[in-house]
Amino acid sequence: MATTAPAAHRCSYEDYEATADWLRSQTEQRPKVAIICGSGLGGLAALLDNRVVIPYKDIPNFPQTTVEGHQGQLVFGTLEGQQCVCMQGRFHTYEGYDVYQVTYPVRVFSLLGVRTLVVTNAAGGLNSSFSVGDIMLIKDHINMPGLVGNNPLCGPNDDRFGVRFPCMSDAYDRDLLALAQQTAEGQGIGAFVHQGVYCMVGGPTFESIAEGRALRTMGADAVGMSTALEVVVARHCGLRVLGFSLITNMVVTDYDSTLKANHAEVLDTTLMRTQDLQGLVRGILAQMPVDPEDL
Ligand SMILES: O=P(O)(O)O[C@H]1O[C@H](CO)[C@@H](O)[C@H]1O
């Protein structure tokens, strides 16, 4: 049977602008910080004061969430004096979305005036010194889909967003990383906060043992099915980025192990660490200058 490949949802500048204009018409809030909540981490949005909640289904051009643990709404509000917008639910390529849809909200945020993107995710631990429940501050990533040509910046470059060949060696802001580490230590949770490399894979399968071993050998400390694409688009349009992985399970890399990765365990672990992660984000925002130039 003949099949037709689905058309890529590459969007025009005007599409992003239309969504940003519509959001501006729904709220007077003008966020400077966007927070993308990973699986089971949507509770971060509940911390915001003066909340304005907008379901994705009402937002022009927005995809819909389909994964358990991702609610599917934008929450505008203030946290520690910072004007924020939280994505309670992100998009993944394994849901059937293409890389342009997965990253659509990031460019909209940039047009809204956001200057800092905070990405969070649930991830499997590869570094043998990590334990379930640890928090990894992301210091770098391996964008596996991007490395094989599935990069959200493929296609004609729109210079209004950024340059054709953006640098990724500075993807995760070093000053924000240092602030996050100091904040964790100040809050007494430094013992389970580490820095490491996040590897994005396509999913939705969890890793085979050979894949887990290969990723570890490549230098990844944690693996998940999100984040890198959003970060690439954020850096392209000049946002500074801070990223957190919550280690929800350890990737099985031993043929004698009987452990089996599963999404229920991922969501259970997020419940266990939700307070610490929320406290950490709150503490960082309390000290983070609104203008990146002030860091
Ligand atoms: O990356 P987030 O969205 O936190 O979710 C992670 O958890 C899910 C697997 O349990 C996958 O979607 C993986 O990427």
What would a concise description of this structure say?
Helices cover 30% and strands 23% of the residues. It is of the alpha/beta class.
Distance between the termini: 58 Å
Instruction: Evaluate the radius of gyration.
Output: 18 Å
Bound molecules: 1-O-phosphono-alpha-D-ribofuranose
Helix percentage: 25-40%
User: Spans of 5+ residues with little confidence (pLDDT < 50)?
Assistant: none
Mean pLDDT: 94
Number of helices, counting only DSSP H or I runs of 4 residues or more? 8
Lateral strand order in the biggest sheet = 5-8-7-6-9
Beta-strand fraction estimate:
15-25%
Order of helices and strands: HEEEEHHEEHHEHEHEH
Shape: globular
Number of strands: 9
Structural class, judged by helices and strands? alpha/beta
Largest sheet: 5 strands, mixed, barrel
